[in-house]
Design goal:
Largest sheet: 2 strands, antiparallel
CATH architecture of the largest domain: Up-down Bundle
Helix content: 55-70%
Number of helices: 6
Strand order of the largest sheet: 1-2
Order of helices and strands: HHHHHEEH
CATH topology of the largest domain: Four Helix Bundle (Hemerythrin (Met), subunit A)
Radius of gyration: 18 Å
Shape: globular
Distance between the termini: 43 Å
C-alpha cells in the first residue's frame, strides 16, 4: 500500500494536481482534490473545452457575423479569448507565450481553423503555466495592464471571469445564428 501511494503522489505531481490528492487517495473511498490551483484548473478546462467546441460548431461563414455595427464579430471574440488566455497565463506564470504568437493580432484572425488553433494553443499554454505554479506564488503580486497590481491568485480569478464572460457571449452569438452549444444537445 505504501509504495502504491508513493507512486500515486509522483503521478499526480507530474500532471499538476496537488499532492494532497494522493495523500487522501483510498482513505475515504473517494479521493478529493484540494487547493486553489486544482479548483481553478478544473473550472478553466471546462470553460476552455466549451469555447473550443463552440468555435468548432459555428460554421466558418458565420465567423464575420456581429450582432451590431461596432460590436466584435464571432472571430474577434474568439481571438480575444485566445489572446487574453495567453496574457493572463503569462502574468500568472511568468513565462512568455511562444515567439510566433502575436497577442494583438489574434483578434484580427478571420480564418476559422486559425482561430480554433489559437484557442487550443492558448488553453494549453495557460494550463501548463498554471500547473507549473508553486502554491507560494499565488500570493505574490504582479503587474497587469501596465498600471495595476494583483496577486497571482487574483490574475487567475480574472482569467476565469474573462473566460466565462466570453463563453456566455459566444453562446449568445451561436444561438442567434441557429447553433446550439454541443454540450447542451
Amino acid at each position: 500500500m505504501r509504495s502504491t501511494k508513493a507512486a500515486l503522489i509522483v503521478v499526480v505531481s507530474m500532471i499538476g494536481l496537488s499532492p494532497a490528492f494522493a495523500q487522501n487517495a483510498g482513505t475515504a473511498g473517494t479521493a478529493k482534490v484540494a487547493g486553489f490551483r486544482s479548483d481553478f484548473l478544473s473550472d478553466f478546462q471546462d470553460a476552455s473545452k466549451k469555447i473550443v467546441s463552440l468555435a468548432e460548431a459555428i460554421p466558418a461563414e458565420k465567423y464575420a457575423w456581429r450582432p451590431a455595427e461596432g460590436v466584435m464579430s464571432v472571430a474577434e471574440v474568439l481571438g480575444h479569448v485566445a489572446g487574453s488566455s495567453f496574457y493572463y497565463a503569462e502574468r500568472a506564470g511568468g513565462q512568455k507565450p511562444p515567439a510566433d504568437v502575436d497577442l494583438r493580432g489574434l483578434e484580427k484572425l478571420q480564418d476559422k481553423e486559425k482561430v480554433v488553433q489559437a484557442l487550443r494553443r492558448s488553453s494549453e499554454f495557460a494550463e501548463q503555466a498554471i500547473q507549473g505554479l508553486e502554491d507560494q506564488r499565488l500570493d505574490q503580486t504582479v503587474n497587469v495592464y501596465g498600471n495595476e497590481t494583483r496577486s497571482v491568485r487574483g490574475v487567475l480569478m480574472g482569467l476565469s471571469a474573462h473566460m466565462h464572460e466570453h463563453l456566455g457571449q459566444v453562446i449568445a452569438y451561436a444561438r442567434m445564428n441557429g447553433v446550439a452549444p454541443p454540450w447542451s444537445k
